[in-house]
Amino acid sequence: MTEISPHCLTEHQMKLAVNDTERLFIGKIVPILIAFGISGNILNLTVLLTPSMRTRSNLLLAYLAVADVIFLVFMLPHSFAHYEIFAFSYWFRRFYLSYKMHLLAVLNWASAAAIWLILMICLERLMGIRNPLSARRHERSSTITIIVIVIVVATGLLTSYYHFSYFCAFKRFCNGSQFHGMCIRSDSDSISLNANLSSIFH
């Protein structure tokens, strides 16, 4: 539930970017990297998932590409938040501020899964060097799928704390036309929590 205040926030108070450096990097550079990253990983998937290319190493690379795409897709809202057309949009702000911590949790999840998949790829390559014949097998390995499932579940559990480690408060200003909010760590003491909330909502 959100409170409604007749007070209207200024454009500066409504901005979701912290500073100009963040606005330049995340708002201008990151979207370009996201576009190249998503298109590149989709191209990788079209190659790696062809029947003649389905080795164990390539399957791991395909799973890594999926993790990268998920990371990049969930990074998009953070980039959009640095553009005024989105930053001042009531419905975008409501979605972004309400789910920001969950979006960050998925980013951490995808990043952690990607790190472990890279480790598995390195181990698979090492096994391929030590036993070259095993690296040439083209049949789909159920072992690889099980390992990937374990990685996804384990990293999901390890990063799940992010979904509930922050307390988020929301308030509508300007008679309900402006949506704003902020998130504070749940383990903050009540005095700090109330002080931080008061600094923006009063």
UniProtKB/TrEMBL annotation:
The record, for InterPro entries, names:
GPCR_Rhodpsn, GPCR_Rhodpsn_7TM
**PROSITE patterns on file:** G_PROTEIN_RECEP_F1_2 (PS50262)
Which superkingdom is the protein from?
Eukaryota
Asked if the Swiss-Prot or TrEMBL record annotates the protein with the keyword Iron, the reply is no
Subcellular localization, as worded in the UniProt entry: Membrane
What Pfam families does the annotation carry? 7tm_1 (PF00001)
Q: Which GO terms describe its molecular function?
A: G protein-coupled receptor activity
Keyword annotations for this protein? Answer: Membrane, Transmembrane, Transmembrane helix
* Sections of the chain in a coiled coil: none
Can you give the residue ranges of the G-protein coupled receptors family 1 profile domain?
Answer: 40-202
Question: Record keywords: Transmembrane included?
Answer: yes
GO CC annotations on file:
membrane
What residue intervals traverse the membrane? 29-49, 61-81, 101-123, 144-164
Family matches, as PANTHER family: G-PROTEIN COUPLED RECEPTOR F59B2.13-RELATED, PROTEIN CBG20548-RELATED
Descriptive protein name: G-protein coupled receptors family 1 profile domain-containing protein
Q: Mind giving the lineage of the organism this protein is from?
A: Eukaryota, Metazoa, Ecdysozoa, Nematoda, Chromadorea
